[in-house]
Write a structure and sequence with these properties.
Length: 92
């Protein structure tokens, strides 16, 4: 089973997230701009509260705080999230 992790920070409507959803892939992404509306289920969205220009902090954030936890949550029930995304793709 596959999933997609989007690390874009300032993209209001990333096409790659739309394409992942259309393929029925569960998406882990930042919780900002239009992504929550695209994904629908906010449990897999990481809250970012870092300075975009501080790359060292950004690296630490991605690897320890937000995304790692969301990926681990996703892996606990990957088939459930995959079915959820396929359903969302069909009804959108």
């Amino acid at each position: 089973m596959r999933f997609y992790v989007d690390l874009s920070y300032a993209d209001p409507c990333p096409n790659v997230v739309v394409e992942a959803i259309a393929c029925g892939l569960p998406v882990v992404a930042p919780n900002h701009d239009g992504i929550p509306e695209l994904v629908g289920d906010n449990r897999l969205l990481a809250d970012e509260s870092i300075d975009v220009n501080d790359y060292q902090s950004r690296y630490v954030y991605y690897t320890t705080c937000g995304y790692e936890k969301k990926v681990m949550l996703l892996l606990q029930d990957l088939s459930h999230y995959a079915l959820q995304m396929r359903s969302r793709a069909k009804h959108s």
